[in-house]
Amino acid sequence: MARNKFIRAIFPGSFDPITNGHLDVVQRGVRLFDDLIIAVGRSPLKDELFTPEERVEMIKELVTSIPGVMVESYNGLTVEYAASRGASVILRGLRNLTDVQYEFQLALTNRSVAGIETVFIMTSEEYGFTSSTLIREVASLGGDVSNLIPVSVYERLKKKLAVK
Ligand code: ADP
Predicted confidence band at 80 (pLDDT cuts at 50, 70, 90)? Predict the structure, then answer.
């Protein structure tokens, strides 16, 4: 079947901060679509460390050399943001079976309320246990997370925690 439709995907998340696991999903995901927007949203259930502006700035620095990848922040419902940007796919990363359970529910909800499909990418096994929440926690207690996040993010994290 011929396909000549432009397919835009969004990769929504809190990215507080972006990790090597997220970047792995971005690098794999961009090959599947015509373009990809990394969409920094706010999670009402999570405590924020970096502001959305700081997160966007950090991510932009990391993806400037990847063609077809953009970075934006958004407020409100992910499906409404996707529609406003003409995206037909939501990209999400999977680490383990716990993610599958939650993501399955989210994807079905998004499809039923907005008809949008979700595409999942399994992360590389080395990042299967990497989460922004754990990184924030471990780093705030003085643990070394330098192999789980890019160097530029690690530097920012150290500065941020020093002033907290
Ligand atoms: P959210 O608060 O929306 O879950 P996150 O920033 O925590 O936002 O995660 C965004 C997406 O990236 C989610 O699909 C999540 O499962 C995925 N993700 C998070 N960490 C990793 C990782 N280490 N490897 C692959 N995917 C990941």
Answer: very high
